[in-house]
Specification:
single chain, binds 2-acetamido-2-deoxy-beta-D-glucopyranose, 5 helices, alpha/beta, cell membrane, flat, nine-stranded mixed sheet, 313 residues, Leucine-rich repeat, LRR (right-handed beta-alpha superhelix), disordered C terminus
């Protein structure tokens, strides 16, 4: 009995000390709310692996300018509320396909300024991802990832693939297929073999294309063709249709919430009224009963009087 207790005590102190030992040697991040989001600020802390000691309920992790070479799924899976992740300017090269899988809340991911060669295709299926920065990963192959991931289902509105190609790595423009919400696309500084209308047919909400210093071989003038071919037109129309459905669904959802709130208010009002009425009724009943009780009491008294009278003296 006593022996067991001692063992448990020893074991727990050992576990505790090994745990705190880990966190004592790890660089410190500053945990604080920024724009009402719980943030782990680990900017420029000389991290070489993904931090293990930041609380799992943070919403923002800022890891810009560190020396992290590898991130795997087990590093990230404990952050259930992670919304924004900055891994800008690290030494990342290989990322497993599954590494970001399950991060349901992740909406902004910055992987700029690394040495990533392959984009994990599962990125393009994240349900909340709307801003993705892949800039300055010189050997990245976006085409393969996109082809593997198609159709892209994440709600991307902003995509930055600037400075990802160079003289030794000239590629075709990636064919993203349909991305109905994409509004901003940054392709600054890239070299492409070819850009054709086909590449933009599925980007029907595109408003800003940042294409400073983009070089492409347009010797056959295919990009400047006056008429867009039928297939591209049909993709464009499909994109617009999906966009329209998304907007409609959003509106219906909003109306649904409005109706729900109104119903709830009505129910609360009805309940309050019901209880008020019931209380009033009870009060009235109690008052009536009190009134009826008085003669009964008097009778009782007279009865008692009668009884005493009937006693033989
Ligand atoms: C994930 O990476 C960490 C280092 O950051 C390592 O300790 C751990 O063993 C890795 N896990 C897997 C499953 O590869
Ligand atoms: C586009 O990318 C370039 C190069 O990475 C960058 O300097 C520029 O700020 C970006 N523009 C926008 C609007 O994000
Ligand atoms: C465009 O290229 C020129 C020459 O290489 C360079 O000086 C300039 O900074 C580049 N502009 C951008 C926005 O990258």
């Amino acid at each position: 009995m006593g022996n067991n207790f001692l063992w448990i005590l020893l074991l727990s102190t050992f576990l505790e000390s090994s745990y705190s030992y880990d966190c004592k040697t790890e660089p410190r991040c500053q945990i604080s709310p920024i724009h009402k989001m719980k943030t782990a600020d680990c900017y420029n802390r000389n991290f070489k692996t993904f931090p293990k000691c930041i609380p799992s309920d943070v919403e923002v992790i800022e890891l810009t300018f560190n020396r992290i070479r590898k991130v795997n799924k087990s590093d990230l899976s404990r952050f259930g509320y992670l919304t924004i992740l900055y891994l800008t300017d690290n030494l990342l090269s290989n990322l497993d396909d599954e590494v970001f899988k399950g991060l349901e809340s992740l909406s902004t991911l910055d992987l700029s300024l690394n040495a990533i060669t392959k984009v994990p295709s599962s990125l393009f299926q994240l349900p909340s991802l709307n801003k993705l920065y892949l800039s300055q990963n010189l050997n990245i192959n976006i085409i393969d990832a996109v082809e593997e991931a198609k159709p892209i289902s994440c709600p991307l509105t902003m995509l930055d693939i600037s400075l990802t190609t160079y003289e030794d790595n000239i590629l075709d423009f990636p064919d993203f297929g349909i991305m109905p919400l994409l509004a901003t696309l940054n392709i600054t500084g890239n070299l492409y073999i070819k850009i054709t209308p086909k590449h933009f047919a599925g980007l029907c909400s595109l408003q800003i294309l940042i294409n400073t210093n983009v070089t492409t071989d347009d010797s056959d003038g295919s990009c400047l063709e006056a008429d867009v071919n039928r297939d591209d037109m049909s993709v464009y129309n499909q994109c617009q249709e999906i966009y329209g459905q998304m907007v409609m669904r959003h509106r219906i959802w909003k109306i649904g919430i409005g109706v729900g709130v109104t119903l709830l208010l009505l129910i609360i009002l009805a309940c309050t009224y019901f209880f008020w009425i019931r209380k009033k009724h009870r009060k009235e009943k109690a008052q009536n009963q009190r009134k009826e009780n008085i003669p009964i009491g008097a009778d009782g008294m007279s009865l008692l009087n009668n009884q005493t009278k009937s006693f033989p003296i």
